[in-house]
């Protein structure tokens, strides 16, 4: 029998939806077809052994993130506690870099990190497929945060199939200056703008472009059905998208439900130029590469 570690540290990436087709509501959820790409912007979570029954989140948390039972990382740890009844509890410490309510699945990433960290901390009898199953119970984006890379997501986004992706992609992310956007609110606005949406189609042209490794080909296929809804709630997003293209990006999209905008550049040097220009205009920016691995133990 292996000995339990006393501490596990996990790094987990954000995601960008390269394509997001949104359809009608079925069983309470919008049906979607999306292509995820994990990008090199990370949250880090440390899980430490605690007294039996303890499950708490500590640390200097950003605005919009609570340490209560509604936190996805706490919910993930609780799920494993109920399922496996470990002999010890857990204290979680979170270092966030993924923006809160930014359309990059930061909360889902933290849940994925907690699942992986606690499964190792408690030496649980789980495999990657088990964690994907538990992740799907917590949220539609959690399984992809575990998987990473690139993937096609269908149903609620939780049914994943790895997508072949060649090459490296250079992104410039611009964080929303007007605060976060509520995902349910964006979907409600989508419903107002699209009373009878068609069933979502798998974006085959985008998947084919990814196999080429050519950022120009991928840029031509980027789309997001939620983008008009997000822009209607935060009109300045439209100006940000125009600014990114004017700065030399191949294309720009709102990431998921927003308000983070993601600009694809032709190369690392081109991304640096785009980032410099947008930063000079007062935007909060970060450059990232993609695709990257999913949740990973780093200590």
Automatic annotation (TrEMBL):
SUPFAM superfamilies tied to this protein: GHMP Kinase, C-terminal domain, Ribosomal protein S5 domain 2-like
Enzyme class: transferase
Keywords, alphabetical: ATP-binding, Isoprene biosynthesis, Kinase, Nucleotide-binding, Transferase
Residues the record marks as active site: 15, 141
Binding site for ATP: 99-109
HAMAP family on file: IspE
General function of this protein: Catalyzes the phosphorylation of the position 2 hydroxy group of 4-diphosphocytidyl-2C-methyl-D-erythritol.
Name under which the protein is recorded: 4-diphosphocytidyl-2-C-methyl-D-erythritol kinase
Gene: ispE
């Amino acid at each position: 029998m292996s000995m339990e570690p006393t501490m596990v540290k996990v790094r987990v990436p954000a995601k960008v939806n390269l394509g997001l087709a949104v359809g009608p509501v079925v069983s309470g959820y919008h049906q979607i077809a999306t292509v995820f790409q994990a990008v090199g912007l990370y949250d880090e979570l440390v899980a430490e052994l605690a007294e039996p029954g303890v499950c708490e989140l500590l640390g200097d948390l950003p605005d919009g993130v609570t340490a209560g039972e509604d936190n996805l990382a706490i919910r993930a740890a609780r799920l494993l506690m109920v399922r496996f009844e470990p002999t010890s509890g857990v204290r979680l410490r979170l270092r966030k870099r993924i923006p809160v309510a930014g359309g990059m699945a930061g909360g889902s990433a933290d849940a994925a990190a907690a699942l992986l960290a606690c499964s190792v901390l408690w030496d649980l009898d789980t495999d990657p497929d088990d964690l994907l199953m538990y992740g799907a119970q917590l949220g539609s984006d959690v399984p992809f945060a575990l998987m990473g890379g690139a993937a096609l997501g269908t149903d609620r986004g939780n049914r994943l199939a790895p997508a072949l992706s060649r090459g490296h992609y250079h992104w410039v992310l611009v964080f929303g200056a007007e605060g976060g956007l509520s995902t349910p609110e964006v979907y409600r606005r989508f419903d107002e703008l699209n009373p009878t949406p068609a069933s979502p189609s798998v974006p085959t042209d985008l998947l084919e472009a990814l196999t080429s490794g050519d950022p120009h080909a991928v840029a031509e296929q980027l789309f997001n059905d939620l983008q008009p809804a997000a822009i209607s709630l935060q009109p300045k997003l439209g100006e940000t998208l125009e600014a990114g293209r004017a700065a030399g990006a191949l294309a720009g999209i709102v990431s998921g439900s927003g308000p983070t905008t993601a600009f694809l550049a032709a190369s690392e040097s081109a991304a640096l130029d785009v980032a410099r220009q947008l930063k000079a205009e007062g935007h909060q920016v970060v450059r990232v590469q993609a695709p990257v691995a999913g949740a990973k133990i780093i200590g």
